[in-house]
Amino acid sequence: MSETLWICDQLRFGQLYNRMMFDTKAEAEQFVQRMKPMEPDQQFSIEAIEAYKIWN
Predict the structure, then answer these.
(1) What gap in Å lies between CA 15 and CA 49, rounded to an integer?
(2) 54, 5, 52: which is closest to 27 by C-alpha?
(3) Contact yes or no for 23/31 (Cβ under 8 A)
(4) Cα–Cα distances in Å, from 39 out to 11, 19, 43?
(5) How far apart are CA 50 and CA 41, in angstroms?
(6) DSSP annotation string for 1-56
(7) Residue pair 10/53 in contact by the 8 Å Cβ criterion
(8) Going residue by residue through the chain (56 aa), what tens digit of pLDDT does each one get?
(9) CB 45 within 8 A of CB 19
(10) What angle do CA 18, 28, 5 make, to 5 degrees?
(11) What pTM was computed for the model?
(12) All structural domains of the chain with their residue ranges
């Protein structure tokens, strides 16, 4: 696992619906591309976060 994780938030009506973590930005983007046609009412955001902020 790398020191950077990529968090993908799924928002529905402005509320956090789901949060998933990925090892790479490419994995997160692939997830979003697969989900957009199935969940057109959701918004997605991808953000990098340092792993140490989640686990000590």
Answers:
(1) 20
(2) 5
(3) no
(4) 10, 15, 9
(5) 29
(6) --SEEEEEEEEETTEEEEEEEESSHHHHHHHHHHHHHH-TTEEEEEEEEEGGGT--
(7) no
(8) 568 999 999 999 989 999 999 999 999 999 999 999 998 999 999 999 998 777 65
(9) no
(10) 85
(11) 0.81
(12) 4-53
Tell me if 52 sits within 8 A of 1, measured CB to CB. no
What type of residue is 22? F
CA 22 remoteness from chain centre: 7
The C-alpha atoms of residue 48 and residue 38 are separated, in whole angstroms, by: 24
- CA pair distance 18, 22, nearest whole angstrom: 13
Place of tokens 């799924």: 10
